[in-house]
Amino acid sequence: MKVFRTIAETKAYLSEARGKGATIGFVPTMGALHQGHLSLFEAAKKDNDVVTASIFVNPIQFNNKEDLKKYPRTPREDIRKLEEAGCAMAFIPDVEEMYPEPVVDKYDFGYLDKVMEGKFRPGHFNGVAVVVRKLFEIINPDRAYFGLKDYQQLKIIETMTRELKLPVEIVACPTMREPDGLAMSSRNVRLTPEERIIAPAIYRVLSQIKEKTRKYSITELENWAVHQLNNYEELNVEYLEIVDAETLIRPGDWNDSESMVVCTAVHLGKVRLIDNLILF
Ligand code: PAF
Questions:
Q1: Could you read off the pLDDT of 164-212 as tens digits, one per residue?
Q2: CA distances from 217 to 46, 69, 222, 258, 279 (A)
Q3: How far, in Å, are 22, 70, 145 from residue 136 at the CA level?
Q4: Domain 186-278 classified CATH 3.40.630.10?
Q5: Atom of ligand 1 nearest to the CA of 56
Q6: 278 Cα: distance to centroid of ligand 1 (angstroms)
Q7: Do 59 and 126 contact (CB within 8 A), yes or no?
Q8: Of the residues 34, 37, 124, 267, which is catalytic?
């Protein structure tokens, strides 16, 4: 596997591959790779001739300095896992390479980036949009792979790609879960053994919401779920919302939308976990 630190080397390598007619699949990551990421590489391998990755802990998408500092970094293991996953090239730039000048770009995704994660992590999605667009320009992939775990991020990237007519197909991949239901996340390694036992409660409650869909009003169900989670002394729900799966607008009634998703962010000790489940 080729590992490049510079944009110039990455572009040169990929233009040669493209010159030979190869299709390019791309998985952008912030490293600390786990099975969830590896499933994206599996999907990318099936669809493309060449699979590429980036590892870049993007500072401008962290609204909290402590979170950025504590974000797990496991570069050696990551490179080994990428090799094993059949990745042909990894672009691993430093901050200077990505942002030689201060970032001034401002995106506005209307409602999509104002609610839920957008509300509680101001500036987060602008940072995501800036880095993903820049990575797309460098890699110029035919397809890029994102997990449904970061549901709102996925909707924003789909919208950006559509609105800016970027020539890349966005492929959404299912959330990978531990056997007890906890959504795989790089942040899970920061849970204490005691917290790790409690964490699956999040998915359990989301699954119960799915079972109870339409049997109660949306508000009743949201309130019930928040109560269930906050009943654990260690859990603190930041938001839990049942929203339209495309617009992320909260409908008044189950019949107001063709597809709905429940999204939540929950603090467990010092770790903030997010999860979601498509209800219908
Ligand atoms: O989902 C992530 O890991 C990041 O937000 C992404 C898409 C790699 C951008 O930094």
A1: 999 999 999 999 999 999 999 999 999 999 999 999 999 999 999 999 9
A2: 42, 41, 9, 16, 14
A3: 17, 27, 12
A4: no
A5: 10
A6: 21
A7: no
A8: 37
Q: Which CATH number fits domain 2-173: 3.40.50.620, 3.60.20.10, 3.40.50.10860, 1.20.1270.10?
A: 3.40.50.620
Atom of ligand 1 minimally distant from the CA of 29 = 8
Query: How crowded is residue 177: how many other Cβ atoms within 10 Å of its Cβ?
Result: 16
Residue recorded with tokens 């775990």: 149
Ligand 1 center to residue 216 CA distance, Å? Answer: 35
Residues with CB under 6 A from ligand 1: 28-30, 58, 61, 128, 131-132, 150, 153
Residue with tokens 């991949």: 173
Residue type, 75: P
- Residues 221-258 have pLDDT tens digits of 999 999 999 999 999 999 999 999 999 999 999 999 99
The residue whose C-alpha atom lies closest to atom 5 belonging to ligand 1 is 128
DSSP string, 185-229: -GGGGGS-HHHHHHTTHHHHHHHHHHHHTTTS-HHHHHHHHHHHH
Overall pTM > 0.70: yes
Domain ranges of the chain: 2-173, 186-278
Percent of the chain exceeding pLDDT 90 equals: 100
